[in-house]
Specification:
There is one protein chain. By secondary structure, this protein is an alpha/beta fold. The chain has 14 helices and 28 strands. Helix 4 (105-113) packs antiparallel against helix 9 and helix 10 (372-385) crosses helix 14. The protein is globular, with a radius of gyration of 26 Å. Bound molecules: zinc ion. Residues 90, 122-124, 238, 277 line the site of zinc ion. InterPro entries: 5'-Nucleotdase_C (IPR008334), 5'-Nucleotdase_C_sf (IPR036907), 5_nucleotidase/apyrase (IPR006179), Calcineurin-like_PHP (IPR004843), Metallo-depent_PP-like (IPR029052). This is Bifunctional metallophosphatase/5'-nucleotidase. One of its GO terms (cellular component) is outer membrane-bounded periplasmic space.
Amino acid sequence: MKPALPLLLSCLLAACATTPPPSPTVAVKLLAFNDFHGNLRTPNSGVKQPDPNRPGKTINVPAGGSAQLAALIKRLKAANPNHAVVAAGDLIGASPLLSALFHDEPTIAALDAMGLDFSAVGNHEFDEGGAELLRMQHGGCHPQDGCQAGPFTGARFGYLAANVIDERTGKPLLPAYAIRRFEGVPVAFVGMTTKATPAVVNRKGVAGLQFRDEAETVNALVPVLREQGVKAIVVLLHEGGTQTEGAGINDCKGFSGEIVDIVKRMDAEIDVVVTGHTHQPYNCELSGKRVTSAYSFGRVLTEIDLSLDRSSGDVIKHRAENLVVRADGPADQAQLDLIAKYAALTQPLEERIIGKLPAAMSREATPGGNTALGRMVANAQLAAMRDARYGAAEIGLVNLGGLRADLRPDAQGQVRYGQLFTVQPFNNNLITLSLTGEELLSLLEQQFDAKGEMYAWQFSSNVAYRWSAKRPAGKRVDVASLRIDGAAWDAKRLYRIAVPTFLADGGDGAKMLTHGRDRHVGPIDLDSLADYIASGEAGKPLGEQGIVRED
Ligand SMILES: [Zn+2]
C-alpha cells in the first residue's frame, strides 16, 4: 500500500479548492447615461430600432421613465458586484413640470434612489445659477419657494466639475474627481462640462464662474491621479458628437462634433469618455478610448465593461453597449411611488386646460428653416410685447433649441398647462429691444454655420426673406427679398424685436442681440404662450411664412 501519495494529492486539491489564486484581472461594469432632463415619466419620444418584421426598416420603440431605468440598473448591478453608475450632466434643467415645479428636487431624489454614484455637471445644471447647483448637492430650502414638498437634503451622488472654476476661490466649484476601488484597484472619475457653457446658459446662471478647456483640464489631473496610484481614468464629459443620419445606437458612423478634437487632445492614460450634450446615441472607439453617449431623457443606458489589470491597475480592455430602456420593461416601485407623490401635487396645474389648437404644432422645419411651433411661439411673443408698456415690439423671435417638445392637442383639440411647460420650461422673461435694419440683417446672417446650413431663428409670421447656402458667408440672405409687415427692409430704421432673455444675452450665437438698445422687460415666455393660446389667436391659420431657401 502506498497511501502517502493519494493522501498528499487530495490535500493539495482541497487546498487549491479553498483558496484559488486571484484572477489577474478585475471586471468592472459602469452604467452610464446623460441628458436626463428630469424625465421621470416616459417621454413621448422613443428610440428608433430595426423593425424585426420589415428588414431595412425601423420602428419607434417607446423608451425611458425613471422606474424603467432604475429597474434596469438594479438588475445589471445585481449581476455585477463591481459596478458604478455614472452620468454626463444635464440631469436637471429644461425638465417637465413634474420636476421643474419643485426646482428639480424630485429628479435629484429619483437619481439617488436609482443608485447614481457620480455625475458631471452639464450646462443645464447652471440654469438657475451656481448657488442653486450647490443647493442641489448639499440640500436646503429654495431661497424664494422654500421647502414646497418637505425638507430637501441634497444629492447623495456626487456632482463633479473639474473645469468649472469659482472666480472667488480659484478652485473648482465642486470636486474635480472621485476615486472608487474595485477589489483594491482604483478607478478615477473626472467630471466636466462643455467649456461653451456660458454661451448656452443665461448670463446670471454662470456669473462668477470660469469654464476651462476640457482636454487641458483633465490632462493636468493625470499626474495628480498617477501619484495616487490611479491608472484607470474615466471622464464624464458634458460635450458630444453626432453620427450620420440613420446610424444605430451602437454605431459610430461618420462621427463628428466638438468631442472628436477634445478626445484627440486627451492624455493616453484616459480610458473611457462618457459624453452627452448632443442628445445622441453612439458607441465609438477614438484614439484607443471608449467614447459613449446614451441619447437623452433616460431612453438609453450604456453598459461599459472594463477589464482592469490587477497588478498594474490599468484598463486592458473596454467594451460598451447601448441598451434601450424599454417603456414596457419592468418598473421599479420606489420610483413609481416618488412620481405619484409629486404628480398629486402638480396635477391640478398640469391638467389645467389652456385653450384649443386646430392641429399639432411641430418643430419639423420647412426647407426654409421655419417650423409651425416656432412661428406660433414667436407670434405669441409679439402679441404679448406689442403693448407700449412692454416696449412696442414689431417682430417676435425665438430660437428653435428653446422649444423642447412638439405641442399636440388632445382629441378635442385642447392643450394643457403641463404640455406648454414641456415646450418652454426655461422661465425666460421676454425682452423687447431695438436693432437697426443693418443689425437685423447681421443677426439673420448669424444663424448660418460655416457651410451655410441654418440653425433657424423662428420669426413671427410678419417676417419674410429668401436665402441660399450657396452664397458666401455674410451674404446668404437676399436683402431685396427681406420684408417686415409687408414693407421693404430699411437699413437705417430701428426695429423693435421681442425675444427671450436667453437670446437677448446673445445665446445660441445670436451675438448681435447683445447690441439691442432700449430694452423693456415683459412677462415670462411660457405665460405669453398660454395667454396667446387662451385668446384663440393661435387657433387661427398661421399662413405661409415667406422664409424660403433658394438652393
Ligand atoms: Zn447640454
